[in-house]
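The protein record quoted for completeness.
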Amino acid sequence: MKAPSAGRLVIAALATGLATSTKHTAILLFPMLALLAVCEILRRDNTADGAPSEAKGKRAGRLAGALVLITVISVGMLWSFYGFRYEPRANHWR
């Protein structure tokens, strides 16, 4: 949150994807990330001279975009671990 970058966003997405691939309770990471984003938006973040460092709307949009990207990448990783199947179980009778 303090020093956002594209690399850190990708690392967060990969870590979330690996966590959801290994443990079902990692699905709780998504509401936790959303809650952290809301707290970051609501947190008073002013510079030393008292001027706002960034508009809350712009920050909210950036964080929402980051959460969407993290979700898309981690769900894609989870789906790849299941072999890109649509069925709940592999059908071996075909």
Residues 54-87 form one domain. The first helix runs from residue 6 to 22. The mean pLDDT is 84.
